[in-house]
Structure formats: C-alpha cells, structure tokens
Write a structure and sequence with these properties.
3-stranded antiparallel beta sheet; alpha+beta; 6 helices; 50s Ribosomal Protein L17, Chain: A; about 170 residues; single chain
Length: about 170
C-alpha cells in the first residue's frame, strides 16, 4: 500500500532520482526552458520552485543550501543573480508546464515543455496585450462608426418627428 506517499518515484532509486532532478533543475535555470515528460516536469516543479523562493532572499546560507541541491556553480549564480531579480515580485508559481500534442517515439509517453514563467516573451506579450480578467464581462465599446451611426439615426428620428408634426398641422388646418 502507498498510504501517505505523495511524490512520484519515477521508476528510479532515491539517489538516481535526486541526481536526475538536480541536473534537470540546473538545465532549467540555465536554459529557461526544457522539454521532458509530463511526470518528470511535475516532479521537477516541486523540486525547483522552493529553490527559486530561497533565491529571492539571497543570503549566503540560502546560496549554500541551493548549491547543495543543484551541485552546479553556474546554475546557482544564474539563479541568484538573474532569475531572482526577475521573479522578485512574483509570490509563487515560477514555472509553467506546456503539454505538447505529440508523444515520445520510444515509449509513447506524454511530452511537455517546462519553463520559467517570466522568460517566455511570447506569453508576456499576449498577457499584456489582452488586459482582460477572466471573470469580467465583455463590454461594448463605442467606436467612431458606432457614434456616427447613432448620430445619423438621431438625425433621422428628428426628421421623422418634424414630418409628423407637419402632417398633424396640415390635418388640423383641413
């Protein structure tokens, strides 16, 4: 039975799993985006997000703890210098998993991208250009075409009213 066993063992021994996650985390930090299986990406998210949170404080003890997880000087420097500055305001959720429609040829496992959120320029452009919330209703904007259309409809309404009053006054005279 697997009561209380919350993480995926990924079919590996403990030391192999730790080494794999360490290497994947270093690659993610250095390259900002990697392609892997969905199961590994979910395990990597749980591994790397606490390290990014530690990097925001930036103390020497945090650097030593993060290095003990990553075992890579370049990745640790990159994390504390560049990544920590970029995600400083973000309260969490530093990674994004994008599932791909294809499967791996060898074992037909689901493939995905895992990336650092603040480094995907395409997604940043899309999110800044929309400016809408998920719960907001869509409001009709009055464009210049709408304003001219309403102005012309008001003018025709006034003309019809004048025509009616002219017809009424001519009927009263008869």
């Amino acid at each position: 039975m697997r009561h209380g066993k919350k993480f995926n063992h990924l079919g590996r021994t403990s030391s192999h799993r730790k080494a794999m996650l360490s290497n994947m985390a270093a690659s993610l930090i250095l390259h900002k985006r990697i392609q892997t299986t969905t199961a590994k990406a979910k395990a990597l998210r749980k591994y790397v997000e606490p390290l990014i949170t530690r990097s925001k404080a930036g103390t020497q003890n945090d650097q030593r703890v993060v290095f003990s997880y990553l075992q890579n000087k370049e990745a640790t420097k990159e994390l504390f210098n560049e990544v920590a500055r970029k995600v400083g305001e973000r309260p969490g959720g530093y990674t994004r998993i994008i599932k791909l429609s294809l499967s791996r040829a060898g074992d037909n496992s689901d493939v995905c991208f895992i990336e650092l959120v603040d480094y995907n320029e395409l997604m940043l452009q899309e999110s800044s250009s929309t400016g809408r919330t998920r719960r907001g209703r869509r409001k009709k904007k009055k464009t210049s075409d709408d304003t001219t259309a309403t102005a012309s409809s008001e003018a025709t309404a006034e003309q019809t009213e004048e025509n009616k009053t002219d017809e009424d006054s001519s009927k009263e005279e008869n």
